[in-house]
Amino acid sequence: MSATHRQTLHEVRTGETIDGFVVGKLLHEGGMARLYKATRRGIHTPMLMKVPKTGAGAPAAALPALENELRVLQRLHGPHVPKLFGHGDLRATPYIVMEYIEGDRLAQAVARAPLPIAELANLGAALCKAVHVMHHQNVIHLDLNPRNVRTRADGTMVLIDFGIAHHASLPDLIDAAFGEAAGTAAYVAPEQVRELRSESRSDIYAIGVILYLLATGRFPFGRANLLSVKRRLFEPPLPPRLHRPDLPPWLQEVILRCLEIRPEHRFTTAKQIVHALTHPDSVHLTARAHRVRPVDWLTRLRLWWRSLYEVFDEAEPVRPFERLSHAPHVLLALDLPHTSEPLKQALRVTVRKFARNEPHSYFTCLSVMRPADRLSLRPDEPSASAAERIAEMRTWAQPLHLPPGRISFHVAEGSAADVISDYAHHHVLDYIIVGAQGRSPMGRILGSVSARVVAEAPCSVTVVRPRELPKAREEHPPVTKRD
Hints:
Layout: H1 3-8, E1 17-18, E2 21-29, E3 33-40, E4 43-52, H2 62-73, E5 84-87, E6 96-99, H3 105-112, H4 117-136, E7 139-140, E8 149-151, E9 157-159, E10 166-167, H5 173-178, H6 190-193, H7 201-216, H8 226-231, H9 240-243, H10 249-258, H11 270-278, H12 297-307, H13 320-324, E11 329-334, H14 341-357, E12 362-369, H15 371-375, H16 386-397, E13 407-413, H17 416-426, E14 431-435, H18 441-446, H19 449-456, E15 460-464
Parallel strand pairs: 11-12, 11-14, 12-13, 14-15
Antiparallel strand pairs: 1-2, 2-3, 3-4, 4-6, 5-6, 7-10, 8-9
Helix pairs in contact: 4-7, 4-11, 7-10, 17-19
């Protein structure tokens, strides 16, 4: 758009009414846009109006960024994005009106960092769940930072500011508008520095920066400047435990894996980070977990030399939604104390086939203890503790030969169907494998857990039943007919 055209655009001001929206007070002025409170008769949801800067001296990318944000918001839905209420004619009165979410829990937490581990894990998991849902809709944010994450009253994280986001199904307006790497310098991934915008794992890198901040109160490469941006192309960040020696090794493993230079060395999906933060015992520790010193100068020199020839461009970009299917999370519901040997074997066969067909899949074995399990339903049936249940599951899974990073074991208490369904929704599962209860006395008492799971689960469910041998035909003695 020409400078002359930008000068003829309507300049929005506080107090005026545009298309039924009353423009309220100015809330924030950024580099490319102004944010105003907005109201409209009949709408009781808090709203804000985003207006791009126009006129002399306005950034050339302000209007393309607003158009890009509008196109992305029109295609996103769910509680993790603000609701879109309206927009103006981008050629005459450009604006967007969207839901206003006031909570800024993540930004406040960064200001208090370093955080306790439990709080960090909860915040990180909530953020990663929002990013996963966004990737599921084929959008890459590319500017994740605490200022662009809001919080609803129930704790749900909401992602905002999609001005430089990339939608895999739309032409990329920002690539042409900016002509250079776009994003917030402290959070951009190495491939973004090289102007690659189609890599969903760039958002994984930004998550790593946020987790690093929450854990240490520092940025991985110090203050955001040209040198720190260049260093991330060839040098791993200082290990968080250098700043915070009490940081658990599992958490450093998670953070540094997010911050790997090459995207393929990071977590594949944000959902994997949710699982790692909520199940620390499932995190497979590598050399990253135990680093406490910076890399030596010789290693730094070798990495710098390699970075001169580093190529990040994907030969054929993978859509975010497609990448999610590369690492499915599978819940295996186990009730081993009440499972027959044929069913245990059938479950193992099913898991083995799935693990072989999906080499990046990972499994959570879940055993649900009912209150009755503590007292036992029969005098001759011993009760089992959670530790014993986990030991039993480990023994059952041993023949599968899955590495520690691909399988974890957990015990919960409550109604089996309720616990499994809640877990599936909370952890955004891809598959559930559950054994059929059969015709045992326990099955008659509790009803069909598998039927409820199939009915209520938000994902595919495989119900496993062992093949029954055909019954032998019953031999009847000959009947003697008497006169």
